Amino acid sequence: MSSKRYKKLPEKTKELAPNLIEKLIPELKKNCTTKFDESLDLSIQINNKQKKSEINLRTIVNLPAGSGKKIKVAVVCEDSKSQIAKDAGADLVGSDEFIEKIKSGEMNFEKLICTPSMMIKLSKLGKVLGPKGLMPNPKLGTVTDDLKKAVTDAKSGQVELKNDKDGNVGLSLGKKSFSDDKIIKNFNAVLEVLEKEKGNQTIKGDLIKSTFLTSTMGVSYKLKLPKNF
User: What is the pLDDT of residues 129-147, one digit of tens each?
Assistant: First the structure.
């Protein structure tokens, strides 16, 4: 049963014509009627079903205004590099003993970074880390010797863009408390990454089928994208 708060929100917004993000942000914020600082979320459906192959999008975007979320970052590295990771802001740092803890199911973190030399040991935990999307990946910048940059990026608003089997991609563009300009900057950063990805893929037609904007406890609106998508 819908709450009294939800019943007061606009109805049938999905039936409205797509609109530009600049026009939709004020509407989304107006619908953020809960007591907490709701997220403003972007939902994308990509054109992943191609005749000859299936498009699998997996990349990262650094949101210039941050995501507004506190991410718990863990680092697996050699003891000699542990202080670098700690100084950069890593919440959990360790080597062989830490890997054993992860193996036993201790995974109280949201992002895992690893140095290349330790990745050989960590790769054996694919069945544990893989299903949770926590396995470090060189393409995503989470297998690296530059721990300072990796940790800083993860903490300051780096988000993974990955589609599910139906082509859906979801991410937060920030919080209701963010200025409109900050949310638009984050949105434009996502578009830049998607444009690069489009150039890396063999796609017939548009990369994106549909795009929606919503708030955590609100209703969704169709988003109008630039023509080149």
Answer: 988 889 999 989 999 999 9
| pLDDT tens digit sequence for 28-50 | 999 888 889 999 999 999 887 76
CB 147 within 8 A of CB 115: yes
DSSP string, 153-215: HHHTTEEEEE--TT-EEEEEEEETTS-HHHHHHHHHHHHHHHHHHHHHS--SS-SEEEEEEEE
Q: Could you tell me if 62 and 162 lie in one domain?
A: yes
Entry pTM: 0.83
- Classify residue 7: in a domain, yes or no: no
Conformation bin of residue 141: beta by default, left when phi > 0, alpha when psi is -120 to 50: left
Residue 95 and residue 141 in one domain: yes
